[in-house]
């Protein structure tokens, strides 16, 4: 299945309908920067997708990671580790991120795609629209059954490449940050943004990124938004990526920051990325309960946007 290329005068995007309708590249024309992550094993992942190599992984997590090329996925019905959803065993990062999608229509700056899940009776119709320097992914989810469905949804854009080189800052409309309980244990605690307490005895300033940062592996979620947005600004390049979304149904934003900090599988210190992930549920812990509920034959629409702006606010 061929990739879909969308473009405006400001940005272009490349989508792969064959696996998750992933947005593999989001390029800002004036700077020439693709703002999304490309994984260190991208060539191998492309070979697997093309049928030229066989996966080495033996479980859902390693199989997913081996074919992870970076970019932007939408994860449903299960973000994160394998879980049971409605009686079905659902693998790492859910079915929408690996399923093939049908291209219903597309033009130069928009596309409509659709898939039906096997793990839960859900039809997802996706509209991807480019407008100026903004890309918006809108998902309409329809419960195809007469059963009440409970599940989760997470939009997973991972940023990388030149956008993370130099003087890089993270800002947000959130007021609280919560370290992932399963990763850091009871020693870590919720803090007022931009402080992060990971149980290491000192507070980390999560707003400072880039080459000079000494942040550990960061994984957790933002909450208590005055307005649902997070912005990643590279002052050396003079551009920023601003993520905004539907905060009513997605009241959290997962934050995953991997700045060459994991010495073991799968990164081995080779990746620099930060993912900003609007989500229906926290990453783990007692607060993690299904955040999306659909009554029989009910539909629900959600959106996430990324806009590339100048560091001073211009497009």
Notes on the protein architecture:
With 315 residues, the chain is mainly β. It has one domain: Distorted Sandwich (Beta-galactosidase, Chain A, domain 5), CATH 2.70.98. Strands 5, 8, 9, 10, 11, 13, 14, 15, 18, 19, 20, 21, 22 and 24 form a 14-stranded antiparallel beta sheet that branches. A four-stranded antiparallel beta sheet has the order 1-2-3-4, with no helix packed on it.
Key words describing this protein structure:
315 residues, mainly beta, Beta-galactosidase, Chain A, domain 5, 14-stranded antiparallel sheet, four-stranded antiparallel sheet, 6% helix, globular
Secondary structure layout:
Blueprint: E1 4-7, E2 11-16, E3 22-28, E4 33-34, H1 42-49, H2 60-66, E5 72-75, E6 83-85, E7 88-90, E8 102-106, E9 110-116, E10 122-131, E11 134-143, E12 149-151, E13 154-159, E14 167-179, H3 181-184, E15 191-192, E16 195-196, E17 204-205, E18 208-210, E19 218-234, E20 239-245, E21 252-259, E22 272-279, E23 292-294, E24 299-310
Antiparallel strand pairs: 1-2, 2-3, 3-4, 5-13, 6-7, 8-9, 9-10, 10-11, 11-24, 12-23, 13-22, 14-15, 14-18, 14-19, 16-17, 19-20, 19-21, 20-24, 21-22
């Amino acid at each position: 299945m061929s990739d879909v290329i969308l473009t405006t005068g400001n940005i272009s995007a490349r989508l792969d309908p064959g696996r998750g309708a992933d947005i593999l590249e989001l390029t800002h024309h004036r700077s020439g920067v693709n703002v999304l992550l490309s994984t260190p094993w991208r060539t191998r992942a492309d070979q697997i997708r093309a049928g030229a190599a066989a996966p080495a992984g033996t479980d859902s997590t390693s199989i997913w990671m081996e074919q992870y090329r970076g970019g932007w996925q939408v994860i449903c019905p299960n973000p994160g580790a394998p879980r049971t959803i409605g009686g079905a065993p659902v693998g790492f990062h859910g079915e929408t991120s690996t399923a093939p999608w049908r291209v219903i229509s597309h033009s130069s700056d928009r596309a409509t795609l659709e898939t039906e899940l096997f793990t839960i009776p859900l039809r997802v119709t996706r509209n991807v629209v480019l407008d100026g320097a903004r890309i918006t992914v809108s998902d309409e989810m329809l419960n195809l059954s007469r059963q009440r469905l409970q599940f989760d949804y997470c939009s997973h854009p991972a940023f990388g490449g030149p956008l993370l080189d130099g003087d890089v800052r993270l800002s947000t409309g959130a007021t609280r940050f919560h370290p992932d309980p399963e990763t850091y244990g009871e020693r870590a605690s919720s803090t007022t943004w931009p402080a992060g307490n990971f149980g290491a005895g000192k507070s980390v300033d999560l707003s400072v990124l880039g080459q000079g940062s000494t942040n550990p592996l960061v994984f957790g979620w933002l909450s208590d938004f005055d307005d649902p947005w997070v912005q990643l600004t590279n002052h050396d390049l003079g551009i920023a990526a601003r993520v905004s979304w539907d905060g009513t149904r997605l009241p959290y934003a997962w934050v995953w920051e991997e700045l060459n900090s994991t010495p073991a599988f799968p990164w081995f210190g080779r990746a620099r990325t930060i993912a900003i992930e609007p989500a229906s549920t926290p990453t783990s812990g007692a607060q993690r309960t299904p955040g999306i509920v659909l009554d029989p034959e009910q539909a629900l629409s959600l959106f996430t946007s990324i806009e590339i702006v100048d560091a001073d606010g211009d497009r």
